[in-house]
Amino acid sequence: xxxxxxxxxxxxxxxxxxxxxxxxxxxxxxxxxxxxxxxxxxxxxxxxxxxxxxxxxxxxxxxxxxxxxxxxxxxxxxxxxxxxxxxxxxxxxxxxxxxxxxxxxxxxxxxxxxxxxxxxxxxxxxxxxxxxxxxxxxxxxxxxxxxxxxxxxxxxxxxxxxxxxxxxxxxxxxxxxxxxxxxxxxxxxxxxxxxxxxxxxxxxxxxxxxxxxxxxxxxxxxxxxxxxxxxxx
Length: 233
Prior knowledge:
12 strands, D-Maltodextrin-Binding Protein, domain 2, alpha/beta, five-stranded mixed sheet
């Protein structure tokens, strides 16, 4: 069997997988899994020299960065968190209008005098005097957090890596504030948190992305153009 002319990575589970499949179907390119229905390889009907690779949304980022796949569908938040110097590795071709989530900074609602990022630095100084340490920020987005806090001039904090329900960490006492994703804000309110007025780090959604380090020959570029045109209409 000859090697595929282009490889596109698609999320392997959840709503991102479902939305990607619906998007391709609407564009006239039905996604088909090869072999077992839970297999990790597939194809696009009508484009037989395109191979579909099913993998996690996070792994798609790494494959794009390394150039192991030509195209990928994943969230912008994962790309900007995981890839240093994004523009050197990945090209954002088109947003896909699903997978919406805002990366935000949220603090306890009882912090009545804290409404903006600038207020955090004042709170951090007071907190350090009273507790002998900086504010703890629970997050899975460590790189986005560091860059955003540096832009806002906030220094009196340390990151606590979150591996579970980030929004619950201030309540259980393992952090003072969080950086997390939200779509409706319902979970934040349920945990008595509020988003800072200027605490929006990123408005994220799923994108079609191209790997700059992939091998782009004539046929791969033709297929890229066809898929881009179909998904961006």
